[in-house]
Amino acid sequence: xxxxQKVSILGFEIxxxxxxxxxxxxxxxxxxxxxxxxxxxxxxxxxxARKYPEYAEYIKNADLVTADGFGLLLAARFFGDCFPERxxxxxxxxxxxxxxxxxxxxxxxxxxxPGIAEKAKExxxxxxxxxxxxxxxxxYFSVEExxxxxxxxxxxxxxxxxxxxxxxxxxxxxxxxxHELNIPLCFGNGAAxxxxxxxxxxxxxxxxxxxxxxxxxxxxxxxxxxxxxxIGNTVFLLLVMKELMKxxxxxx
Length: 252
Description:
Elements: E1 6-9, E2 12-15, H1 19-31, E3 36-41, H2 43-51, H3 53-60, E4 64-67, H4 70-78, H5 89-103, E5 106-111, H6 116-127, E6 132-137, H7 146-155, E7 160-164, H8 169-177, E8 185-188, H9 192-197, H10 205-209, H11 213-220, H12 222-251
Parallel strand pairs: 3-4, 3-8, 5-6, 5-7, 7-8
Antiparallel strand pairs: 1-2
C-alpha cells in the first residue's frame, strides 16, 4: 500500500489524505484479511490522549489517523504545512454506507443511547437499498456485559464495526477486544449515529466551511460540551503556540 504523507501535531502523526483516498484505503483494509483501526482525530481527542497513555498508544498504533477537527487544519498551517481537506466522521458515514451498499460489506452499529443505533440502521436501510447492517447494540452496558456483546458481534460476521460511545470510551472498547473481534475494520465515530438517526441536525454548510461547526455542536449540547469547546479549544491553541515557539527558537 502506498505510504501516505503525514503532519505531526503535538506528537501525533496525522495523514494528509482526502476522503476518496480514505475510502480506497478502507476497501484495501477489508480485502487483506487483517484487523485494522481508524482514528478520526480532533483537538478534543488529542487532548484526551495527552492525559491517558493507553489512549495515545491506541491512536499512534492505528492504521489510519485523519484530521477530523478544523483545529488540526489550523495547527498544520501554523507549522507551515497543510491537509488537503478535513475528513470528518459525519461526512464519512453516508459515503461508507454507499460503499457498503455497492460492495456488499456488512456493518455493525455499536453505541448511542438505547434506540439510536436502531434508528440509524433504519435510516441507512431506507437511504441505501440492500445495505446489510447485521446488528445494533446501544452503548449503555457494563464491562461485565462486554464478553456477551463481543460474542454477538462476532456471530453476526460483520466487516465493519462502528463504535459511537464517545472519545476514549469507544476506542478503549476496541482496544480491549481487538484480538477477539474477528472484524477487518473497527473505528470510533463519536456522535455519528445521532446525526444519522436525526437526533441532531448537522451544522449549516457555511459554518462547516469556515471551521465553526463546533459552535453549532455547542449550541446543541451546551451543558455537556462547553468545557470541551470553550476550554479545550483554548488549551489546544496554547499548546500549539508553545510548540511553534519552541520550533522557531530551535531553528533560530
